Structures are given as structure tokens and as C-alpha cells.
């Protein structure tokens, strides 16, 4: 059964898709939020998702585990950074956005538990991550960016060592 990019990127429950039919995520301009530091973080998450696909194709369980751990660690840092940015910018829907992040983390942790029990989860999690990230950027992140962009741009453009951006990057990405 052939699956096209729309199905892979669509927000559906992961199914057992043959991995050779998945398509690596390619960053396109429609994923840009207009906030460079957030876009760079999203691009890094895309890299991890594509590494997951590569690890699965190599059938390297150890690599799948390492990529999964790094992906989760980086994504948690990204979520904390993004929520801090929203809070600093006065985003009125921070709590629901944070809840979306929490639910996603819970779901990914379920996959991590299954993986630690010996289950093969790379195909499923690749599909989940691809769909979730694209939808999250285009919907949830687009909503907050439109609401708080002027304040956010000022915050992230402050390049001083003691500025918000430097402090926050140091706090969340060590």
C-alpha cells in the first residue's frame, strides 16, 4: 500500500506503515513562524525525526533508542523555551498551549516505555512525530505567533549576554 505525504503529515493515529514509503520531512517556508530562534529549534526537531527514520531503516535498535532519547530531551527543552517566551510576551492562551505540550510528552513517553520493554516503535513514532509537529507548527504555534509576535521579536532580538534570549537559551539548552 502506497502512502503519500498528506497521509503521513495528516493528524491520524499512527499505523503500521512500511517505513520505505515514508517521506523524510523537508523544511518548507510554510513552516516558518517568523521567529528565527523558534524556527531553528523546529528544524532541529525535524532533523531528529528524520534521524529516527534513518535509524529504523538501518534496523539499528541502539540508534533508535539514542535518537529517541535525544529527541525527547531536545523537545522538552524547546517546549520549556517556547512556553517561557509566551509567558514573557504575555500570551493569553499559554495554559492551553502548555497542556498540548504536556499531552504530547505523555504520549511520547508511552512510546519510550514500549521501546524499553523491547517493542519496535520506530515506525509508529516517526509517523506520530511527523504528523504532530507539522500540525502543531501550522496550528498551535501559528496562533501564538500571530498574537504575540511584536513582543517576541523584541525579546529574541536582544543579543546582549544578559538579555532574555541569552538567559533563556542558557537555561533550557545546556
Automatic annotation (TrEMBL):
Species this chain originates from: Azoarcus sp. (strain BH72)
Record-given protein name: Hemerythrin-like protein
Keyword tags: Iron, Metal-binding
Domain Hemerythrin-like: 33-146
Source organism, top-level taxon: Bacteria
Gene3D superfamilies hit by this protein: Hemerythrin-like
Molecular function per GO: metal ion binding
Pfam families found in the cross-reference section: Hemerythrin
Family from the record: Belongs to the hemerythrin family.
Amino acid at each position: 500500500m502506497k502512502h503519500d505525504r498528506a497521509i503521513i503529515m495528516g493528524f491520524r493515529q499512527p499505523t503500521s506503515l512500511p517505513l520505505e514509503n515514508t517521506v523524510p520531512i523537508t523544511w518548507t517556508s510554510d513552516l516558518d513562524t517568523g521567529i528565527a530562534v523558534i524556527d531553528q529549534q523546529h528544524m532541529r526537531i525535524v532533523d531528529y525525526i528524520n534521524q529516527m527514520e534513518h535509524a529504523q531503516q538501518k534496523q539499528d535498535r541502539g540508534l533508535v533508542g539514542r535518537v529517541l532519547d535525544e529527541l525527547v530531551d531536545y523537545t522538552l527543552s524547546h517546549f520549556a523555551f517556547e512556553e517561557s517566551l509566551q509567558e514573557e510576551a504575555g500570551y493569553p492562551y499559554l495554559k492551553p498551549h502548555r497542556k498540548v505540550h504536556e499531552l504530547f510528552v505523555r504520549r511520547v513517553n508511552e512510546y519510550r516505555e514500549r521501546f524499553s520493554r523491547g517493542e519496535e516503535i520506530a515506525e509508529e513514532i516517526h509517523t506520530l512525530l511527523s504528523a504532530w509537529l507539522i500540525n502543531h507548527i501550522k496550528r498551535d504555534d501559528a496562533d501564538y505567533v500571530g498574537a504575540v509576535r511584536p513582543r517576541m521579536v523584541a525579546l529574541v532580538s536582544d543579543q546582549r549576554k544578559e538579555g532574555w534570549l541569552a538567559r533563556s537559551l542558557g537555561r533550557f539548552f545546556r
